DNA sequence: AGATAACCGAGACGGTACGTCGGGTCTTGGG
DNA sequence: CCCAAGACCCGACGTACCGTCTCGGTTATCT
């Protein structure tokens, strides 16, 4: 739900989630492997931000990471593997759906996050989307990432139900997609310049529809 | 709205007598030049269908069209130019929004067309979407194509207003996007297997929301 | 003189109990270490026969022998070391020069052996020759092997002198080279298809020249 | 007969034999192709001399020639192709067998040439021989080269017959091989340090055998 | 019989070279 | 004015071997 970039950027640095379990003594090898992973994933992020997907070659990543080409090929096989690993790492974060006290507030918050992720230039998220069209592995990892985000966002709907804002049988996924899809559509597919007001409007529309009981039943 | 492929796939030799892509000065529109354009665009379509966007190289198109590489480079410059020309040609068709007598019926009809265009394998439409992430020219042409389709679909909303199904001040574009975006989102971005029921549901949801007056006002 | 392959191919597990290659300190000649040596040398022979010298990589040998890469690197250092060890093992056989009762007969017998070793397909001998151009260690081992063979063949000349067939002061080495060199030349360097008749002819020519006293004096 | 290097080295420089036919105006292209060939073949020669066959990679040649890797691959396919082209060019020279007035003198002259070609360090000839074991194309070209040389040397035998030095039915090829093979054998295969006296001796032996009528008959 | 040094399996790594594909430029020559 | 042909430079691909390194686990021989 939130742009992939948000989460993906979180784990940057020395490979917080990729560190070896246990001892810190990254003498030479032993730690080298883990350090290389961090170096490479950082390089992928940086390269993606600076030059977009088309500037993302195994060679450029390897050079940027200060690691040998063949090492990258050995462990990640190709660009898709790099992206998949990046997305997998991004999934291991602690992102949580916003909790503003109202359905509309939560949806607006989510959509603003998405808007930010999609329209910031350069946008890691759009680069990853572009990548997903070229690599099956990246596509799969991106799908998993989004599924994870939608699952976490289900909380928003549950809370709204508990508060009595919307009918009990509201389909969470359908509502969330109704709120976010127009934004993605506008920015990613139609490529129309899109203001944050558009994001807010889509959130409001979805909330009102939910209140009207649109997302219940078949 | 309808998949780009529908229109684009229509006529094989569609562009035979059509105007050349960008330049106004139609110096030599007849004879070999025009024939080559048709041959090349046909080859682009065929190559896209058979091998997807990644199998679309200037070389492969040229060979398939029986034309020399340099000829393609000279007139279309790159793959993006080929796709842009293809989409421009596709926009010159006579597609019209469905007219079933009810808002829901119309939206369902549109969404089924989209569903078909997106899930047929191979899908020209998804290939074009993929292409739009690699080529600014293709992206621009695809955007123009879609804007054209949404404009034609505005009729659906106008008729529904005239019939008194939905409030007078309903925002046509917002409604149409609400109906179609979830479908694109699901298929193109989330890559979740999607049945035609999902398409129908999205159409129904949007129609109900419109009836509830969601798409009026700010 | 005889093709290197003859001796080298003799015993499968030829080196099982033999001394380790270079080092004097036979620290642990028994058990796994010795078994590994036999496995590896067998793999070298087999690989050489099946794929020639160019198919002989440390990796392929290790895999074929069921031994780890690093084990091979540790003990033999590189491909040249493997070949040198193989040739050293081959020199420890009981090959003896033929004894047919006449100089011509002996030379013909030798040349037929050489011919067989060089023209059998696949030919271990030619593979070893090829190898000798790439590895100094292999070249040295091959030279030692051949010197050993020529030394053993000197008997042929001594016997011919005793029988009074050729002058007393005949230079054994010169005669033997005169008999065999054309065969090697033809097959190995000129790469001309060569029949066994050619081998016989070279033997006869050398014998006649010896009888004529060509290989005496300076 | 003469070492391959002798001839091959002759054409060095600006590609004397490889120049385009006709006009000298190697402006840019047109002449570029021919100039590239000369540059590349020169680089092959130089690289072979400096680093031997094992230092001869397509990459190193391309870099040395100041030409792009892919250009070399396109025109010569691999290292074997480079060597074959080099040898083909070498065959187009005007080398002629020596004519000293006596069979022994001619053979000695030839053998000294061979000796020089084989023992000069670095030796282009031995590098080419080594190469011929790795590349079928190089082997074939080298064979053709040598066949050409033996054919030219047949004159030596014919003249000796005319002078009445040797029997009329002497087999030229057999005699020439008998004279030169021991030298190649000693230097190339046995790798024994070899003086020019050895070359002279082999020539004398062959001449004496020829006089004795060894190379007539079956 | 146990200690210990030699050996081995495992696997990542940096590195050279391979041969191929595609992109995009350029020039010649012919219609 | 257009086009066919084809060489070229260039970046990138993914693979094969090479030789090195460190780790942890066996195993043969010595004490």
Characterise this structure.
Chains A, B, C, D: Residues 57-76 bind DNA. Chains A, B, C, D: Residues 34-94 form the HTH tetR-type domain. Four copies of one chain form a homotetramer. Chain A has 218 residues and is an all-alpha fold. In chain A, 67% of the residues lie in helices and 0% in strands. At the A-B interface, helix 7, helix 8, helix 9 and helix 10 of A face helix 7, helix 8, helix 9 and helix 10 of B. The structure holds a DNA duplex (31 and 31 nucleotides).
Defining key terms:
218 residues; Transcriptional regulator, TetR family (chains A, B, C, D); homotetramer; 10 helices; TetR_C (chains A, B, C, D); DNA-binding; HTH-type_TetR-like_transc_reg (chains A, B, C, D); mainly alpha; 67% helix
How do the helices and strands line up, and which of them pair or pack?
Four copies of one chain form a homotetramer.
Chain A: H1 4-10, H2 31-51, H3 58-65, H4 69-76, H5 79-91, H6 103-119, H7 124-132, H8 136-162, H9 172-190, H10 196-211
Helix pairs in contact in A: 1-5, 1-7, 2-3, 2-5, 3-4, 5-8, 6-9, 6-10, 7-8, 8-9, 9-10
Chain A binds a DNA duplex (31 and 31 nucleotides) through helix 2, helix 3 and helix 4.
Task: Give a brief outline of the structure.
The first copy, chain A, has 218 residues and is mainly α. The first copy, chain A, contains 10 helices and no strands.
What helical percentage do the residues of chain A reach? 55-70%
Largest sheet of chain A: none
Strand content of chain A: under 5%
Global mean pLDDT of chain A: 87
Major protein interface? A-B, 35 and 35 residues
- Put simply, the count of helices of chain A is 10
Rg calc of chain A:
19 Å
